[in-house]
Amino acid sequence: MKILVCISKVPDTTSKINFVDNNSKFDQNGVQYIVNPYDEWYALVRALELVESNGGTVTTITVGNSSDDPTIRKALAIGANDAVRINANPTDSYFVAKQIADYAANEDYDIIMTGKETIDYNGSQIGSMLSALLEMPFVSLASKLETEGSKAVLERDVQGGLEVVEVDFPFVLSASKGMAEQRIPNMRGIMAARTKPLKVIEPVEQKALTSVVKFELPNPKTGCKYVDPENMEELVELLHNESKVI
Amino acid sequence: MSVLVFVEIKDKLTKAVQETITYGKSLGNVTLLTYGDVSDSLLLETGNFGAEHVLICKSINERNEQLLSNLIINAVKKYNCEYIVLSQDQTGKAVGPRVAANLEAGHISGAISFPEKSDEFIVKTNVFSGKAIAFVSVHTPIKVISILPNSIPPKENKTTALITEINEDLGEARIKVKELKPLGDGIPLPEAELVVSAGRGLKGPENWGIVEELANSLGATTACSRPVADIGWRPHHEHVGQTGVAIRPNLYIAAGISGAIQHLAGVNGSKVIVVINTDPEAPFFKAADYGIIGDAFEVLPRLTSAINNFKSSQ
Ligand SMILES: Cc1cc2nc3c(=O)[nH]c(=O)nc-3n(C[C@H](O)[C@H](O)[C@H](O)COP(=O)(O)OP(=O)(O)OC[C@H]3O[C@@H](n4cnc5c(N)ncnc54)[C@H](O)[C@@H]3O)c2cc1C
Ligand SMILES: Nc1ncnc2c1ncn2[C@@H]1O[C@H](COP(=O)(O)O)[C@@H](O)[C@H]1O
Q1: How far is the C-alpha of B194 from the C-alpha of B250, rounded, in Å?
Q2: Among B7, B21, B287, which Cα is nearest to B152's?
Q3: I want to staple B127 with a disulfide (CB 3.0 to 4.6 A). Which of A17, B133, B134, B202 is the partner?
Q4: Architecture of the domain defined by B2-165
Q5: What letters, b where the CB count within 10 A reaches 16 and e where it falls short, cover B36-61?
Q6: Which residues of B touch A128 (CB under 8 A)?
Q7: Using N-to-C axis directions, what is the helix angle for B90-103 and A93-104, rounded to 10°?
């Protein structure tokens, strides 16, 4: 079984969000980067489990520059066999999908996994776009994945419920919570990751179809109004007459 | 301008459907596209929000992103649409980017505003899990816009919808749907307008009765913090926050939740936040509109009976 897992780096979940250059760029000052939790905890770990029980390889792929290498090494420390980095700034989702599709088209992967979304741009786009570019079926928001020979049975999140679906290899999925449990890399994994192959390849030509013109921070809350815990009639009154939500 | 609005309709026109048509109408003439077993009277109702032409494909009776993408792409080509509008729900996330990539069209993921008045096509979206807003510009002639549920107020705009049944060859479905496991009849979290949520402060799953009773009185959907879902006190689909479901209800009531930054990231789009916590220093109070420093075991039942009294006096 050959699995490709798309890995991206995102600011640590406790990062302060600020912008510079006239609010046009994210302020990276003092920001720690981590592997996007959906990519690491769910997609990557499930891919490793499948390969551990069925044999095969897990390759990670990242569209980014050399500042992504530490997060790529983290994925290798958790257990991926090797990594590919496409040496480009990820300008927009279509650009990223195009780079990954171009690489994956010649590699015969059985399953291509992305996370549900990146926790910085929250696009939830790359997996769906990849499936279009590679002309493969797409199982979005998958929370369970089992394989039997050359087909897979998955559970996915749909409006109002969970759906059990069956699909033949090859296909693309986006992984959401439930698919696997987070793994902490051990010392041996961290040592091994240093010498695992990380192949850097150059991007194909592609213009961005969208761009971020500027950022804005939401208006801060104006302050909390405290209500006496004995007096819930007052809260109901405020919710009805003041904020008009009930 | 010709606009294709794609929606899913079951037994009523949900708020998400109304929002999507409203958005489409603001951009031009709306051709609405849907599928499955939908009654004519419901299809006609879409005219109340501005759908002039309704295309329905009855031969698709389950959600298959590949068939639905092909259906949308065919309609876009046939009617020369410049805009494709859908909801950023589970189906929208699966289908929208696929359609966009097929048409090499720019895709806006989770629009929270109508386009800015500008020469460029610019729309706001939430980024950094609601901790910031991005103004995204689309550079392609065809634009795909997925709108975040509960961001656009639906507006009536009466027209008479003309219904056309369509039937086309969309290829073979490569995904087989085996079974649907419904999550209960409640309103799903991403669409819920009222949400009652609880965290580790509730001490154990046996204590959730008081949370559910409040939710029932309000007609609200229940949610929880991540550790509560991780220990198995509550089902995973109730977990809200940065790594769970992101919600934007009108009212979010949080009891026994400390308000960690990752929790806030998924709920800070709520219009009004009520926090119930024994600890006056709990960080959640900084994000709250109304705060109650008190024991959830006493406050929740009291709030439930106050709500019940209020409802029966209405
Ligand atoms: C990468 C990452 C992602 C994460 N994603 C999420 C996420 O998506 N969603 C999420 O929720 N968390 C997430 N977390 C976890 C988050 O950091 C917090 O640990 C978690 O939100 C805490 O849950 P809690 O508030 O229920 O529990 P606690 O922090 O233990 O808080 C319990 C609260 O209950 C109060 N309390 C106790 N008894 C009572 C009582 N009788 N009445 C009223 N109040 C009482 C206490 O004062 C306390 O404030 C994430 C963490 C990481 C590192
Ligand atoms: N620069 C990138 N390189 C590789 N994979 C990425 C990149 N950005 C996003 N992805 C993958 O696509 C998923 C969805 O991202 P997004 O569409 O940006 O929310 C992520 O969870 C990753 O698996």
Answers
A1: 6
A2: B21
A3: B134
A4: 3-Layer(aba) Sandwich (3.40)
A5: eebeeebbebbbbbbbbbbbbbeebe
A6: 65, 93-98, 101
A7: 70
Distance between CA atoms of residues B124 and B137, nearest Å: 9
Distance CA(A11)–CA(B205), nearest Å, equals: 33
Domain A2-215 has CATH 3.90.550.10: no
Residue of chain B whose alpha carbon sits nearest to that of A101: B101
Please tell me if the CB atom of residue B130 comes closer than 6 angstroms to any atom of ligand 1.
no
- Determine contact: A220 vs chain B, CB below 8 A: no
Q: Who among A97, A164, A246 is closest to B101 (CB)?
A: A97
How many CB atoms neighbour CB A244 within 10 A? 11
| One-letter amino acid for residue A235 of the chain | L
User: Which of B224, B277, B284, B293 most suits a substitution to test ligand 1, by most atoms within 8 Å of the C-beta?
Assistant: B277
Nearest CA to A140 out of B15, B64, B53, B190 is that of B64
Pocket-testing residue among A9, A10, A13, ligand 1, by greatest number of atoms within 8 A of Cβ: A13
Comparing alpha-carbon positions, the chain B residue that sits nearest to A210 is B138
Please state whether the predicted TM-score (pTM) of the whole model is above 0.90: yes
pLDDT in tens, chain B (314 residues): 899 999 999 989 999 999 999 999 999 999 999 999 999 999 999 999 999 999 999 999 889 999 999 999 999 999 999 999 999 999 999 999 999 999 999 999 999 999 999 899 999 999 998 889 999 999 999 999 999 998 999 999 999 999 999 998 898 899 999 999 988 777 889 889 999 999 999 999 999 999 999 999 999 999 999 999 999 999 988 999 998 898 999 999 999 999 999 999 999 999 999 999 999 999 999 999 999 999 999 999 999 999 999 999 98
For chain B, give every residue range classified as CATH 3.40.50.620: 2-165
Give this complex's ipTM.
Answer: 0.93
Q: Is A141 in the pocket of ligand 2 (CB under 6 A)?
A: no
Which pair of structure tokens corresponds to residue B249?
């209800």
Question: What's the farthest any 2 CA atoms get from each other in chain A?
Answer: 67
Q: How far is the CA of B240 from the centre of ligand 1 (A)?
A: 11
